[in-house]
From TrEMBL:
Biased composition (Basic residues): 1-10
Gene Ontology annotations of biological process type: methylation
GO terms assigned for molecular function: methyltransferase activity
Low complexity composition-biased segments: 93-109
Organism expressing this protein natively: Streptomyces pulveraceus
Residue span(s) of domain Methyltransferase type: 57-162
Pfam families recorded: Methyltransf_12
Ranges where the record places region Disordered: 1-25, 91-126
Name of the protein described by the UniProt record: Class I SAM-dependent methyltransferase
Length: 288
């Protein structure tokens, strides 16, 4: 699936726009950025033959696109996330029904906020697939949180169940890598703590996380996920919605980050004003 280039009207020019609210950023994620990973979701579901017999738990489900695709294939889906704004958007896409999120009618999506341990199956039937589609290995501290989440949710899976971890591919195969290095540079030593700053993915990052979480790697794959945007403003808004630039904003200010990201996007701007960046993402299939 190729990302659709959609033009989003900016509130004002990037250089003078006020910092967006959490709700604005969640909408930027849902409307601009999230679709860029749709080929990854589709490839994983096709490989694992996700369908009507699948009971899926999504860690960091965000605004719910991956859950929506799985549900369309017939899977029974549960999503958990700590971002209330993204979850609010997920609930508009995947209404749980009149009984609420904790115990919706049989087969309806469950969308839960907070610690992954809250995702215990309401009917006691274990999950057979757990996904972590937020790419790991991009910052100095994202692995710790994922390992903790996996340790609390793997016991909810069936014995021999499947867990999927995802990450960025090699930097040389990700055109977005130089743009993300803006965050790394702005969080340089002596200016701000590097916690949360972007860094290139290591070749064995996913395997190391799997072993730490007590999982057994059982195959992997790579998927092309090009990032395509209608214009520079949409690209800046989409990229900043990923949270990969949050530490850079704290280290400097949003206006500077936006300007430097826009500058870094120039080599990827085509004659019609659109932005196009080919990328490769990697996934690791594990068993519990």
């Amino acid at each position: 699936m190729t990302p659709t280039l959609v033009r989003h009207h900016s509130h004002t020019e990037t250089s003078t726009r006020m910092a967006p609210s959490p709700g604005d950023r969640a909408r930027d994620w849902a409307e601009i950025q999230e679709r860029m990973l749709a080929p990854l979701y589709e490839a994983v579901y096709a490989r694992l033959e996700v369908g009507s017999g699948t009971r899926l738990l999504s860690l960091g489900c965000g605004s719910g696109l991956a859950l929506l695709i799985a549900a369309a294939r017939g899977a029974r889906v549960t999503g958990v996330d700590t971002d209330p704004e993204r979850l609010a958007l997920a609930r508009t896409r995947l209404p749980a029904g009149p009984d609420g999120d904790a115990d919706p009618p049989a087969g309806r999506p469950r969308l839960l906020e907070g610690d992954p341990s809250t995702a215990r199956p309401s009917d006691g039937t274990p999950y057979d697939l757990i996904t972590a589609f937020t790419p790991v290995g991009c910052s100095s501290d994202d692995g710790e949180g994922l390992v903790a989440a996996l340790r609390s949710t793997v016991p909810l899976a069936a014995r021999g169940g499947t867990v999927v971890l995802t990450g960025w591919g090699p930097p040389e195969r990700c055109a977005t890598a130089p743009v993300l290095r803006v965050a790394e540079r702005l969080c340089g030593r002596g200016r701000a703590p590097r916690t949360g700053a972007w860094r290139p993915s290591g070749r064995d990052d996913l395997e190391e996380l799997a072993f730490r979480a007590g999982l057994h790697p059982d195959g992997s794959g790579r998927v092309a996920c090009p990032f395509g945007y209608a214009d520079t403003d949409s690209a800046v808004r989409g990229l900043l919605s990923t949270r990969l630039f949050d530490a850079a904003v704290r280290a400097t200010d949003r206006d500077r980050v936006e300007k430097e990201v826009a500058q870094a996007l120039r080599p990827h701007r085509r004659r019609d004003g659109t932005i196009w960046m080919p990328n490769v993402f990697r996934y690791l299939v594990c068993t519990t």
